[in-house]
Amino acid sequence: MSEHDFLVNAAGRRVPRVVNGVEQVPYQGVGGYEPKGSKHGPPIRSCRDYPADGDKRVADLKTALQKCGLEDGMTISTHHHLRNGDRVALMALQAAAELGAKDLMWFPSASFPCHEPVMELMDRGVVQRIEGSMNGPLGEYTSHGKMRGMGVLRSHGGRWQAVQDGEVHIDIAVIAAPTADAFGNADGSHGPSACGSLGFALVDSLYADHVIVVTDNLVDFPCIPWQIQGNNVDYVVEVDSIGDPAQIVSGTTQITRSPDRVLIAEYVARFLRDAGIMREGFSFQAGAGGIALAFVQFLKDMMNEAGVKARFVRGGSTQFLVDLLKEGLTDYILDGQTFDLAGVASIASDPRHVATSPFTSYSYHGKGNFASMVDAAVLGATEVDTGFNANVNTHSDGVLLHGIGGWQNCLFSRCTILAVPAFRDRIPVIVDRVATLTGPGELIDVVVTERGIAVNPKRADLLEAVKGSTLPIRTIEEIKAEVEGIIGGRPEPPRLTDRPVAVIKWVDGTVIDTVWQVEE
Amino acid sequence: MSAQARKAKAGEAGRRGADVRSDCWASVELADGGGIEVELTSKVEALFGTSLRADIADTMRKAGVPHARVRVEDQGAVPWVLEARLEAALRRAAVTPKADPRPPRTAPPPEGTSRDRLRRSRLYLPGNEPKFMINAGLHAPDAVILDLEDSVHPAEKDAARVLVRNALRCVDFQGAERMVRVNQLPRGLEDLDEVVPEAPDVILVPKVESADDVLQVHARIESIREEKGVSTPVWIMPILESALGIENALAIASATDTVVALTIGVEDYTADLGVPKTPEGTETVWARSRLVNAAKAAGVQAIDSVFGDVADEEGLLAWGVRARAMGFEGMGCIHPRQIRVIHRAFAPSQAEIDRALAVVAAFHDAEAKGLGVVSLGTKMIDRPVVLRAQRLVARARAAGLIPGEGKA
């Protein structure tokens, strides 16, 4: 059996049986796969091996990596709370390169344009592959077959699940911390590089063999509050700067100005109102995309008009969610990551603005998780097909574009809404077959476009609920046909080779689809 | 090939560059042999490369050009946009097409509009910018204006004409009235030749100063309608933009029975007065009142100018409310977000609607009973009051403001 043995999974997608030497379980349908056994555990450590005075500082990252026993082929993990301002992931990988390490696996919770220099490390053989997200130039690099190992894309919940399963064993976790003490307690809500929650790094701190905290704001013990417990940390490294504050959080989050997107946002809000989802004590999740932010503005007016408030909202927190909290329109913000200065200030000061983690929100191996308890989630997509299956990972031409983020996990909300333009320039969003399958249509309830709202026929209850509303409810086929009339017919299928370059994992660790190398 | 074509052997049209969206740049260099050589770069090459090449070949065939080097830089132009750019490039190369170069009509067939249609909002769409045209109707303005005048660079007038013509044939404006603002006369008359065969609903004529301007436009429109068999009406909306135009407002409004509305261009008007334009608009109050009065005297609608600050929605609302109080029935929009604000400004108040519904009900009641006199409570209701109430109810219904009839 090799990476060139394929089988067809329950979604009808051809997937490799082996990825990076590890045998895979093909996707078996939503809830179809039940893993057994015990969770993976980190090695036993004892306090006698750590300084009694709690001072775990070492001179620099290189020293820390050496002390962690860096070897060729190891897995180094980082988190993405510093977003496009992150300096620590590159610092760690470059320090490993200077120590002569080869064939590393980089396991970020997401990658950003600032991580482009990793391509050079891959060219030099320092990094063998990325299991995380491959965006922009990294996506091009992977799609053109330049990465030696196969990429693995996981959702935020899936990353936690993979670590708990032992599918990914983190040798060394390098955690960028906007504030930390010498013991390793760390937090993201204060300091010159404040980023809000550090929730994505929690799993790394709990399960890695070795944990290094890197900070540019060392405070005397205790670091209050702490989200990362120093008891899980091996070494603390002080550096001048962990990131570029201007790129970590935006000063103000911009709402979309595109009239078409504003229209989509308005339809989303009206749908939530008219379907009766917006009611006293409801909950919703909104991301930081332009449409998601704009729909909150419309919904806010409707909530005020109807005199209802939410019990909780989930973010990606921004000024717009913070305003809801301040104005008494929600009791809580359950925050997965913090996108702007208003969000950072709020999570640092308001006890009703609570940091969550991919475990509480998303993980398949939790005894339940928050995602399925949310009344509505408003998400984006690059493509959706007439069976409501959606793609967030590749362009229509099959080139890797985005990671999964929390997208797959959010599909488990009671009403999952994809808010998407019906086409972008000449590129249709509603298609016969998505280039890459990220999420199955049975979990996608509504597709809202500027040309109408399609409700999944499986959700007869929602169709019934909006009967008599003035919303433009149409079938997805009607919207697709209208768009094809505008753009001049159906596009050609993507031109792909038979060589897999990455796989898309479902939330349970099974392989839902394959990303193929594109034809040159 | 004509003698003229031998002189100008090349032409190009459209827009190029990374910031261009939903448009393309096309260049045609005529050759003496070698067939059609196509150099195409497109951001949708992987999805529509075959279709783009077929479309280019087809356009050259219709133009009767057997040999040429055709270069296209495409940023996701839909077919009617690509064809408009190629056609403009061919025209600039002085090629007279052999076959009808127009794309097949895919927009719904024109149904014609009524004289006194609701014209609260009319959304300006720059005539050489296709990306705003495709989704314009989704924002539900009462009308769209495909603009060939001020929003089009003088060097691009010919290309914009082709694009606007194709838009009239291919874009579904979702029930919005389709208006075209032509250029100032005499160039505007040539614009008519291109657009009137496509049965636009209204022609906006800029800088009208006399009844004669309207008559010239009217004559040209009617002769094209007859020649091309355009059966739906093509109304005229003169734009008064000078002191002289305002002075002649009544004559202009009454010039032909195809004039449906008068409107004002305050930028040029204030320039003509030699005063700055202010946010309060005090300097145009007289002209606008004069226009309203002349329009009403002639039995046509009075439509206000545009409000320039897109971000200032409160200012726009206040302006609209004042304009309605002066007798205007609508105004222009330079951005889709202004549409809903304008509709709100021109919507009757709930008290007005309730009163009008009561008057209309009393009228029906009197009719049913065969009474000659309509009365409401202790008051006798005059005929004009009933008519005004009926109009108001119709407007309110169109705006979705009649209780129990659904709200957007």
Would you mind describing this structure in some detail?
The complex is a heterodimer of chains A (520) and B (408). Chain A is α/β, with parallel strands linked by helices and 520 residues long. Chain A has 2 domains: 192 residues, 3-Layer(aba) Sandwich (Glutaconate Coenzyme A-transferase); 236 residues, Glutaconate Coenzyme A-transferase. Chain A is 25% helix and 23% strand. Chain A contains 15 helices and 30 strands. In chain A, strands 18-17-16-15-19-22-26-27-28 form a 9-stranded mixed sheet. Chain A has a 7-stranded parallel sheet with strand order 5-14-13-10-6-7-8. In chain A, helix 8 crosses helix 9. Chain B contains 15 helices and 14 strands. In chain B, helix 3 packs antiparallel against helix 5 and helix 14 crosses helix 15. The termini of chain B are far apart. Helices cover 42% and strands 17% of the residues of chain B. Chain B has 3 domains: 90 residues, Ribosomal Protein S5, domain 2; 225 residues, Phosphoenolpyruvate-binding domains (TIM Barrel); 49 residues, no CATH class. Chain B has 408 residues and is of the alpha/beta class. The relative contact order of chain B is 0.08. In chain B, strands 11-10-9-8-7-6-5-12 form an 8-stranded parallel sheet. The N terminus of chain B is likely disordered. The chains are: A alpha/beta (520), B alpha/beta (408).
Task: List the keywords.
heterodimer; A: 520 residues; alpha/beta; Glutaconate Coenzyme A-transferase; 2 domains; nine-stranded mixed beta sheet; seven-stranded parallel beta sheet; 23% strand; globular; B: 408 residues; Ribosomal Protein S5, domain 2; TIM Barrel; eight-stranded parallel beta sheet; four-stranded mixed beta sheet; 15 helices; 14 strands; elongated
Element layout with pairings:
The complex is a heterodimer of chains A (520) and B (408).
Chain A: E1 6-8, E2 14-16, E3 18-19, E4 22-23, E5 57-58, H1 61-67, E6 75-78, H2 88-98, E7 104-108, H3 118-123, E8 127-130, H4 136-143, E9 151-153, H5 156-165, E10 172-177, E11 179-180, E12 186-187, H6 202-207, E13 210-215, E14 235-238, H7 245-248, H8 259-274, E15 282-286, H9 290-306, E16 310-317, H10 319-326, E17 330-338, H11 341-349, E18 353-355, H12 358-361, E19 376-379, E20 383-385, E21 390-391, H13 407-410, E22 416-419, E23 423-424, E24 427-428, E25 430-431, E26 446-449, E27 452-455, H14 460-465, E28 473-474, H15 476-487, E29 496-505, E30 511-518
Parallel strand pairs in A: 5-14, 6-7, 6-10, 7-8, 9-29, 10-13, 13-14, 15-16, 15-19, 16-17, 17-18, 19-22, 20-25, 22-26, 27-28
Antiparallel strand pairs in A: 1-2, 3-4, 11-12, 20-21, 23-24, 26-27, 29-30
Helix pairs in contact in A: 8-9
Chain B: H1 3-7, E1 10-14, E2 24-30, E3 36-42, H2 45-63, E4 68-74, H3 79-92, E5 121-126, H4 130-133, E6 143-147, H5 157-170, E7 177-181, H6 187-195, E8 202-205, H7 211-228, E9 235-240, H8 243-247, H9 249-253, E10 261-264, H10 266-273, H11 285-298, E11 301-303, H12 313-326, E12 331-333, H13 337-345, H14 350-368, E13 374-376, E14 379-381, H15 383-398
Parallel strand pairs in B: 3-4, 5-6, 5-12, 6-7, 7-8, 8-9, 9-10, 10-11
Antiparallel strand pairs in B: 1-2, 2-4, 13-14
Helix pairs in contact in B: 2-3, 3-5, 6-7, 12-13, 14-15
